[in-house]
Amino acid sequence: MSEMKSFHHVPVLFNESIESLNINPDGIYVDCTSGGGGHSSAIAQRLKGGRLIAIDRDPQAIKVLKERLLPFGCVTLVHDNFFNIKNILESLNIESVDGILADLGVSSHQLDEPSRGFSFHNDAPLDMRMSMEGVSAAEIVNTLSQQELQKIIYDYGEEKFAPSISRAIIKAREIKPIETTLELSEIIKSAMPAAAKRDGHPARRTFQAIRILTNSEISGLDNAVQDMFGCLKKGGRVSIITFHSLEDRIVKQEFASLAKGCTCPKNFPVCVCGKTPSAKVLKAVAPGAGELSDNIRSRSARLRTAEKL
User: Fold this and answer.
1) Which of 78, 76, 96 lies closest to 86 in space, CA to CA?
2) Residues 224 and 96 in one domain
3) Segment 95-152, tens digit of pLDDT
4) Do the domain assignments include residue 109?
């Protein structure tokens, strides 16, 4: 199977996210996580005199996107992390844009391709790097202290068995380095009580935590949201799809801060700060019953949109 055919991604909240951008055919738009090109293609199809900047940090995605987005002459493809959006747009001599979309989830290709090491269902090298560069999940698992692992698993995975899991990892790696996904999965299982193993796959939360750290998904997300909003024109919109409570909380809080006006103490009789809201936050959207039945991975997804006033 060719790489292009194998790189498949099922966009979550697809129609809702495209509609949320309120696309102007002559506008400039950014797809921060172009992935398999689903969202990017839909945006590009709606443009006439406009332009789309399609960004992704995965080199396999970039290779496929060059083919999939080739029919659209309005698309500029960028291999980078969208956390650098200000520098990316500046390098393209773009001062501001009409809309920005970011799908923060792991792509279906990354999850389903065993060699990428994201999944606990298949045995593969413990990698998890979206960019295929930098420190791998295996290096993290084999070098962090027990206290560091426990904190990461608890904070990023919201896993209550983080103490016993982190101790089991340390004990296992004293015998030999942990090198594969199934090795790690079995170590996690061994550290959890039987009852906990019946509530979904026991490794899910720990794998999420290690993946988040490997790809720096949470650290700097608040600044990235502010940067995205700062790149908008008046009336422009930024729409972000999140897949777990940690990132959703950050997006929700950053949008709320942008929509907040007066910051004076409540006991002040009149406003003296003079601050006014810079954003209007639209109602958050969750997948409907139809999408949930078709794609179980959409169950935790939320779409949040803010419009620049």
Assistant:
1) 96
2) yes
3) 999 999 999 977 766 776 878 888 888 899 999 999 999 999 999 999 999 999 999 9
4) no
The model's pTM is: 0.89
Q: Are 125 and 137 a contacting pair, CB within 8 Å? A: no
Same structural domain, 225 and 201 = no
The answer to whether 162 and 188 are in contact (CB under 8 A) is no
For the record, the structure tokens of 286 come out as 């969750």
Is-contact 166 188, C-beta < 8 A? no
Residues 134 and 81 in one domain: no
Do 21 and 95 reside in the same domain of the chain? yes
114 is a domain residue:
no
Q: How far apart are CA 43 and CA 65, in angstroms?
A: 14
Residues 63, 148 share a domain: no
Domain-terminating residue out of 214, 229, 250 = 214
Question: Is residue 39 within 8 Å of 101, Cβ to Cβ?
Answer: yes
Whether 141 contacts 127, CB under 8 Å: no
Tokens of 294: 């078709």
Structure tokens at 254: 């950053």
Give tens-digit pLDDT for 157-195.
999 999 999 999 999 999 999 999 999 999 999 999 888
Q: Same domain for 8 and 96?
A: yes
Tokens of 18: 């495209």
Closest CA to 56 of 89, 3, 102: 102
